[in-house]
Sequence to fold (286 residues):
Amino acid sequence: MVELKNLSTGNYTPDWCPGCGDYIILNALKRAIVKLNLNPNQVVVVSGIGCSSKLPQWINTFGYHGVHGRGLPVGTGIKIANKKLHVIVIGGDGDIYGEGMNHFIQSLRKNIDITLLVHDNQIYGLTKGQTSPTSMHGDKSVTSQIGNFDEPVNPIALAVAQKTSFIARSFAGDLEHLTNTIADAVSFKGFSFVDMFQPCVTFNKHNTYDWFKERVYDLQKKGYKPNNLERAFKKSIEFGDKIPIGVFFKEKKELYEETHPVLKKTPLVKQSLKNISIKKLMEEFC
Fold:
């Protein structure tokens, strides 16, 4: 694994479009790590492919830039190998809910202590504006000239259906809310998932900052308690004139790492190989 330095302090800057919500998410993630007083050497940011997935290159932690849709299995492997690391997986709505949908569903079923942050701009931004899994029904794009025929994926509802241990949503237009939500997710012991509305100012002219600001409201400011699955599901399908952000559901459960005796005693990277023999196993194959 390579330690990626923050090149934005030198002669390099991200090539995100001016006004892109990715800048705000990067800022919020840095603020959350500082707020939690985490040692950058104990943080690993993993990504796949897409505008959002360039983020590990611009934060001074360990990073892994993988292939399209495969951030979650890589993050899972890192956490299983060294459970003392804070693993944060970054991806976009196409990366996680499209190419990586199966990995997303399987990760929701487990309770591995990693955090998934999804930049949800409801469009494929890096590849120039194709319809994505979360594009709204009827929206036009370069691949849906007369409007999108498909119903959009509802990632919050999917997570609630799998009784995921921490489910939240935030908005890149609210830096304070986003920072606090990311910090809560990273500090939570268990699989934590945050869907983040991240306006694409170049290719998505519908779901803009103003469009979201007119609609989003904070669940916690309305007194909502994230401790009831049925109530969380009702809120997860609320999407229209009003759109909830905040923590939908939270529940402490046994960690995946704690269910396996080999993983429970000490991280794999610190376990000795001296007394391990595969001779008997090899004999069974011969």
About this structure: Residues 161 and 168 are 14 Å apart (CA to CA).
